[in-house]
Amino acid sequence: MDYRVLLASFERTQDVAGWPRQRVIHACLRAAIMDGQLPAGTRLLATRALAGELQVARNTVLYAYDQLATEGLILGTPRGSTVAPIASDAARARVKPPARSNAIARRMQGLRGLPSSGAEARAFAPGVPALDLFPLVQWRKQVERAWREMQPADLNYADPAGVPELRAEIRSYLAASRGVRCETDQVFITSGTQASLELCARTLADAGAITWIGNPGYGGALAAFRAAQLRTIGIVVDDEGLNPTAQDWQLRTPRLIYTTPSHQYPTGGVLGMARRLALIEQAARVGALVIEDDYDSEFRHDGPPLPAMQGLVADAPVIYVGTFSKTLFPSLRTAYLVVPRTLVEPLQAVLARMPPHGRVADQLALANFLHSGQFGVHLRRMRRIYRGRRDILLDALERHLGHCGTVHGASAGMHLALRFASGAPPDTEVAQAVLDAGVVARALSAHATGVRDHGWNGLMFGYSQVPEAEIEPLIKRLARVIAQYGR
User: Fold this and answer.
1) pTM greater than 0.90 (yes/no)
2) Which pLDDT tens digit goes with each residue over 198-240?
3) What is the CATH number of domain 379-483?
4) CATH T-level assignment (fold) for domain 131-376
5) What are the residue boundaries of the HTH gntR-type domain, all occurrences included (predicted)?
6) Kind of pairing between the strands at 256-259 and 289-293
7) CA-CA-CA-CA torsion for 112, 117, 119, 123, nearest 10 degrees?
8) Which residue spans within 50-133 are E strands per DSSP?
9) Sorting pLDDT into bands at 50, 70 and 90, what band is 101?
10) Where are the domains of the chain?
């Protein structure tokens, strides 16, 4: 048994982003035992030998073996650890299929086939921050402080809109950094961007209402709109971003308009000021609401940053969506909405009848992290690092894949796009070939949101989590795959 191959295969098929190595190794061995890949009586590699093979500390392997022993899946003998007979019995067990299909509801069928929103920790998966550079020591201090200062009342359910201290800090931060105009009561805390989008889809539009989304666009938004039974229309995306025509406004008048103007997902375009103002004006004219997803606007590498659409016009019909999963870490599960004044009371009434907030300590810790200035320090550091990694990636793409197409969306964010030249093979096939070589580079066409061909054929490259020394070797590997694929 080649444990390196076993582990690599497990990591390729499972979402293990952010897991510690001991947990990954334990889960991998457990799955191999339960699937029968490691049958009863199999003698496992000694802990020291396995640690050397996997290039981890011996204590990491000891932890995994101890967990397996606790679960009764392996036995300790004088000759080492072996797979227990009970594990083989479990692997042979088969559940009798139900008489009737357990199909999900029809309204959820549309979610199948959409790109997953789960973050992958491999190069070049988009949207994954450099978690190894997160200031854990400072964060732990704020978490400890939050618990020290907790009062008995804080142990109850939190305000459905979120902890007031955090909402106030977010308001101050957005006013200074993004030009957002709002008061604290217009800020609503959610458990993530997906939760924010689902809340908008279910509370701001009736089933069947027309919703615009860029084509290509963010699959998480498309999933939220489809689950709410909204009629989604894929709108053409050009080099800047969402580009609706006069015919779109006249014949496909929207109730909701979803856009990522600071860094179009997935193509990376930045919507210019004139287009932003025109979109706001037209939305107000037809009574539509713009959902401005500013998911990675904090990272602007070239040129002056453009302010958020929400603050460009007083009382703009814009709902601003933000998250801390890109600036801090995904498992924090904290995002926010800034809604127009007219929606504050209706949204409060809706949230009062929904499951209340928990995790008060996490919200208080985040408020402290923002107020102390540590968030700003971390953000400035990551901007510098991401810009450097972007530069290395651009140079590597020019050296090894410059003949394949043109780069888009490199001026901002945490990913860029390589748009293939005409005559190139389908990006989905190239992405699969690259994935088989151990590199994640998502196909742009996989983010289609409408029946019309969006014309974007290429790959996405998320660079934020890739160490500088690994970028060019990975691009070289990818270039070899593409060269062989094209023969």
Assistant:
1) no
2) 999 999 999 999 999 999 999 999 999 999 999 999 999 999 9
3) 3.90.1150.10
4) Aspartate Aminotransferase; domain 2 (3.40.640)
5) 19-86
6) parallel
7) 70
8) 74-77, 80-83
9) very low
10) 3-83, 131-376, 379-483
